Amino acid sequence: MAAAPSRHDVFQAIADPTRRQLLKLLGDQELPVTVISGHFPMSRTAVSKHLRILAEAGLVKGRKVGRETRYRLDPEPLLAVKQWLAYYERFWENKLAMLKHYVESGETDGAEPVATRTAVQPTKQE
Fold it and tell me: Are 66 and 32 in contact (CB under 8 A)?
């Protein structure tokens, strides 16, 4: 049986909404865990665990200042996410281009335009 990897990758790290919020919080400032934990409805220990996962993925860096550790965002590993998403961007661009063409051409295939359709009102059940 293969052992589980000890480090988390960027995709695992950002999969959790709390960790995404941590990244956003640390995007513009360096903060100690005591201040960071004040932004979340969880214990300081739980916040520290999330920070450890982010640090293992290389997304945050900690530095000692006196007795506390201050954390800051290191956005470089997010380039892997950007590169991965770049492949799928072509699908979004294609769909947007098709929608733009459809709207600008006025093609409706004989269907009534969306803006002029009347909503079907549900019947009242007694």
Answer: no
Phi, psi of 63 (to 5 degrees): -140, 140
Distance, CA of 107 to chain centre = 36
The per-residue pLDDT for range 95-122, each reduced to its tens digit, is 878 888 889 887 655 555 555 444 445 5
Beta bridge pairs of residue 70: 32, 63
CA atoms of 9 and 72, how far apart (whole Å): 18
> Where are the domains positioned within the chain?
10-73
Phi then psi for residue 64, to 5 deg, are -80, 130
Q: Does domain 10-73 have CATH number 3.50.50.60?
A: no
50's CB contacts (< 8 A; 6+ apart) are 16, 18, 19, 22
